[in-house]
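Per reviewer request, we include the raw input and output of the structure prediction for the construct analysed in the revised manuscript.
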Amino acid sequence: MKPLPRKQPGQMLLWLCVALLALAGCEQISVSDREQVANIETIRALTPSPTSSPLPSATPTITPTLTPTAGPSATPTLTPLPPTPTPDPALSGFSFCTQAAGGQSGRFSARLSAVTASGFPAYDRIVFTFEPAPDSPPIHALARCLNESDFLALSGEPVAPGSTTLQLDLADWIVDDALRTTALTQTLTFSETRAVRGVAMRYDTAAANGASLLMSLDEPTVFRLSINERPAQLIVDVARNSPLVAASDTLATVAGGGMASLDTPLYFLFDGDIWRTTVAARSPDDALSPVANGAERLTESPETETALAMSADGATLAFCRADSAADPAEANLAVPSRLWLMKADGSDARPVQQEGVNCADPTFSPDGSSVAFSVDETGVTPPQRSLWVVTVAEGLPQRVVGGDEWSSFAPQWIEGDNLVYSALAQDGRSTLFLVSDGVIADIGAALALADDGSVRYRSFGRPLAAPDGSGLAVEAFRADSTGVDLLILDADGSLVETIGAPLTARPVPQVTATTAASATRTARATATVSSTATLTVTIGTATPAATPTLTPIPTTTPQAATSGVAPYWSRPLTWSADGQLFYLTTNCASSLVQDYQLYRWAGPRRSDLVATGQTTAALGSATAVGDGLAYVISAQALPGERGAQNADLRSPAEIWYWNVSSGVRGELLTAARGVAALTR
């Protein structure tokens, strides 16, 4: 074979120049464009790939199911905390939290004169420019995200702007000629923005003040609200890629093979009846068996069971049964009902003689010999509830609290056969009472006051006692700000620990923009608006509004009771048999996404962080089982800020079990409607 001739150095240089010229002719990219492409690729690399939603799907009837898995791990390990994603610097200050801008400085008069839409690689920016009236206070607003069902429920409108709505509430915007001449009377649409699809305005023509700006989004995503005083502008930045993916919700993510194993049955309310399910250890071969969970209906009557409790020895159930087929989602209505007792296998169900209109809140004494419950004695609004105790053997109830100015409810047993309970007066006062040896003491009064005599808490939630009655946990609603602290108390009502920082003000996170600055970006927005009034809609190469100076917004909650940043809401879930308390904290106020942390409390300043996550679902009732936690996940929460026990019983639900020691976490069963009162 004839060898190929060697090229001379001059020829090689000539060929190289020709090749470079050819490449340059194929694609010419400016330096600024190359930088933008690099930024976009960086953001894509830092953004998790979207996966299917973790929310449960509705089924026509309750169907015990198992999550398909490839089998248990050879060596299960506990990995409760998901890896922390690398934050994108461009999204500093973005969150799902409800956010305020401009403070609260009174009613203002202004005309919305311009809407500017522009795009950055990481987020879209919408700027609302106002013309304030002379001597008017500054504009201010509150921004929150709502899902479609919540928007419809809260607004009363027939159609939501989108699957997710970012709502800017300007509650102090005066409804005057300046507002009425605002041109944004129909939806303003953006054809090329990736996150924000359109903007609309709503206000009540008969109201003195109040208006809302509605931004339609395709999915829940983080945002940032800021304000510029001169010119008067509200600036909304919306991330183009949502950080919320299926794996964000740790409690709804299978782990350790997902082969949950229980050695004790679980009891719960579903569709007005009492059900029981038991999951035993099993092999991968029966992972898809429809009867592996052993779901069994214990009651099947035309009436509705509205409350449920199990004795500590697992032998007896106490429940309230309504005289009519009331909707379980409306179980708090004052329909006639009475207390029943039944063996754990569903046999020997018998009613208890009862005074008054209806019963609620049954709870067994630690030794299982007695049941305390509350009774509405009048059936009028507001209810006037009293507390009764009945022995399981005799079945003759005796009233122990009632006949005064307080409506008493949610009794819990503590040491010495004593009771602690919540009470509410008709004038709105709320407290906790302790009944000890027949003497009633107001333990809430001392807890509500700070050391300097100021009011620390305005009301209290429902107490939750340890199984042996040695202590209790209760939510305390802050008086100086929004949110809830968790109080751990001894059996005598003395304070052991506060989860949260009750004396620290917690205003809604705010962002301000004080100076105008230029920024290089690629124009992304085009817009159309149907209106004859004058409205400036800036598109194309519009100059961005002021670059905000950000007030830091917390994105994580450090160790409870030792952090300088308090959670928005702290909620007790359940006590384990050995006296440890599982509790949930919610990072910030949000009406769409709950940014949660699950802790296990083992004593003063001994809270272990078990899991963190984000979810659009709602965590319902929970109960400790062995070395783990069984809990209900409802697909939908009731409208409002996330954090409280606010699962919507009309939505599909799932029961999960997590063996915290082994790390195995999996779904036990699914239900077409809400599951409540989970107990063991």
